[in-house]
Amino acid sequence: MSTAPKKNAPPKNAPAKEAGSAPLFDRVTLIGIGLIGSSLSHAMRRAGLAGHIAGHARSERTRAKALELGLVQSIHDDPASAVRDADLVIICSPVGSYAEIGAAIRDHLKPGAILSDVGSVKQAVIRDLGPNLPDGVHLVPGHPIAGTEHSGPESGFATLFDGRWCILTPPPGTDAAAVEKMIRFWQACGSQVEVMEAGHHDKTLAITSHLPHLIAYTIVGTVADLEEATKSEVIKFSASGFRDFTRIAASDPVMWRDVFLNNRDAVLEMLGRFAEDLTALQRAIRWGEGDKLEALFTRTRAIRRGIIDAKQA
Amino acid sequence: MSTAPKKNAPPKNAPAKEAGSAPLFDRVTLIGIGLIGSSLSHAMRRAGLAGHIAGHARSERTRAKALELGLVQSIHDDPASAVRDADLVIICSPVGSYAEIGAAIRDHLKPGAILSDVGSVKQAVIRDLGPNLPDGVHLVPGHPIAGTEHSGPESGFATLFDGRWCILTPPPGTDAAAVEKMIRFWQACGSQVEVMEAGHHDKTLAITSHLPHLIAYTIVGTVADLEEATKSEVIKFSASGFRDFTRIAASDPVMWRDVFLNNRDAVLEMLGRFAEDLTALQRAIRWGEGDKLEALFTRTRAIRRGIIDAKQA
Prior knowledge:
The structure is a homodimer. The first copy, chain A, is an alpha/beta fold. Helix content of chain A is 48%, strand content 12%. Chain A has helices spanning 35-47, 60-68, 79-83, 98-105, 123-129, 176-188, 198-224, 228-236, 242-248, 253-262, 264-286, 290-309; strands at 25-31, 50-56, 74-76, 88-91, 114-117, 138-139, 142-144, 165-168, 192-195. In chain A, the strands form 2 sheets. In chain A, strands 3-2-1-4-5-6 form a 6-stranded parallel sheet. In chain A, strands 7-8-9 form a 3-stranded mixed sheet, with helices on one face. Chains A and B meet through helix 7, helix 8, helix 9, helix 10 and helix 11 of A and helix 7, helix 8, helix 9, helix 10 and helix 11 of B.
């Protein structure tokens, strides 16, 4: 993830907490309390969305920190006890951990509960969490398009989702009321919400997010392999372009490993197109085909204008 | 170029104009008045570095605009008359134009004048400008590591170079006093100055700047080739990583065409390494080698820390 809104910016479209009104959920459980989990806690508390926030994290340090920072009102060593009586369970850990978490919590979910997540891939989430869910538990996967290059429970903040998109990918036949409730939840966290099919999400994000991260990781890796003297000069003069890639390539390694392993086909398809285009450009440089270069470099400006017009710049 | 300092930020290390002191140069000529040329005019006037600023631009519109904005005190249709009596001539046009400009101005340069430039490649500049210079004219090529994605005479501002590096690459045997004067010039424009050999500059910038721009242009081009419906979704969700590439890929097309044509060997060498690394990563994704992915994604974080420690983040 690479979007870093100003921490102190006023919320763009987050409704203020309504005094005296009942929270949207009596009890919410966060499984995993890193950047997104902790930011969700801040955003939920800002909007008064949960009567009680329970948490589970694998590491002792994160559990202690989450309590210390007031991110959760109760903390649990095992996921099964964390989800007990929860009306909403949000998995905020790397997507590679979902199958194990699903197996651990499945039989402990409250009837009528909503099971959601914040993972960057969505077909794999439905594959790993969907089967064997008890009747009356509603799976509504989600993906907030927001993040920073920082990780851990201390890195979260309430405004992370303000003005950003959140994509929900409920499988066909999902209870409409549950989907509606999750739309209200994310809007109250400051987001704009879009509902789409999981496969379509994965294809779109392969281009907008997964391929850019892959490329950034690659070029920073290429530099990491250079000899020390060269590397220190690259760092010194990094403001000329390279720097922008390093921020993207500082994102959480385990999270991104799991993204690439779980959206393999869509990522390889886009990577194939990119590699072809790169080879064509390489050939144009080798043969001194200035017209081809200039034509491409002119065409790409239109995309930038589109992003500025869409107010996503 | 991709560095965008705040336009209204106070200058970090630009010395104030000393009241009553003589300017460093009586007459400075700018050949080309785009982002860098116009910013140089602003920076020179801020620091009182030139008694008179003359200018040449190829297009009638740019010449009129430069006068209207007060960027130059005299404007000239042809480069030869623009450089007459100048103590310093700075070429600020795409590097592909240097050979022609060099031929046009060569016989009109004042004895003792310094000929410099701001191009992103340096060996080609010495190749195109160096031969046949009159005795007593000093070639001191330069490259300010600063820029934005905007172009044209209206896009310049005085603080563009503040706190940024400027690299000078005088050929062996260049007059030391001329080099010293250009160091003082760039420091007065707000920059930190580094002197290095032209070939070393070109290798270093191939990694820090040329390859990142090439990759950004490629991925934005890959997206530009997608069908319209997909493209509009990519723009909508671009904050998830893609957006950062579009800013880099909005830089001036002709300038960048000339960079790649004139630093071919160094760019192809770095591009070759990058392509190998990308292929290795592609293979790791295809075969589900999570350990390899995680190891790379962890290693790249160290480079980011280096940039933060070097205060270039």
